[in-house]
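Hey,

The postdoc asked me to send both predictions to you directly instead of through the lab channel. I've kept everything plain text so nothing gets mangled by the mail client. Protein one:
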Amino acid sequence: QVQLVESGGGLVQVGGSLTLSCAASENILSFNVMGWYRQAPGKQREWVASIRGVDSRSYADSVQGRFTISRDNAKNTLYLQMNTLKLEDTGVYYCYVYWFRSYWGQGTQVTVSS
């Protein structure tokens, strides 16, 4: 079993920045895919960004150029640096990994206000 614990969410104004963290209980180098999803109120969960393999990064069009996904292998931690936040970035952000199956964190709330 892989345990994932997110942190770093909070309330921020439009145009502000936040960095989310996801601490894993296992060596993250073992994982095929690591990434982030988010779910806005009343909407389906949507993919935000991911890292595949050694360092292949992908982003949803809605966050391209504003969000950066990264990881610290020594700390077994995944990050999501979010800049120039918009109202539509509001939601619960979930960390996930794929290692023989999918594992999800409990989520961290991000609220962008005007």
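Protein two:
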Amino acid sequence: QLQAFGGGLVQAGDSLTLSCAASGRTFRSYRLAWFRQAPGKEREFVAHIITRTASTDYADSVKGRFTIYRERNTVYLSMNSLKPEDTAVYYCAATSNEYTSNYNYWGQGTEVTVSS
């Protein structure tokens, strides 16, 4: 029900925007998030947005470079000044309980590779 798109191979310093579309949902009062998993590492939180308030939060490693936003039933992750350490498979996630980070909907992942 969540489909992530937009990954690819870019160079350090480039920008890329990921998108995650939901079928059959309007994200009225949801917490939407992006996570990533680098090779050999555990999945880590990247950013979230509360759709009702538009409040956001980011991992320290991406603050000032990444922006999460939502338009209708799609959540985006705009990534600027990409670094090789941003290389990972990026997953979108959603929960209908905006007060929890227990996500019950996950996208299939889209791979981002940043070359130095």
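Summary for protein two, as requested: The mean pLDDT is 94.

Thanks,
C.
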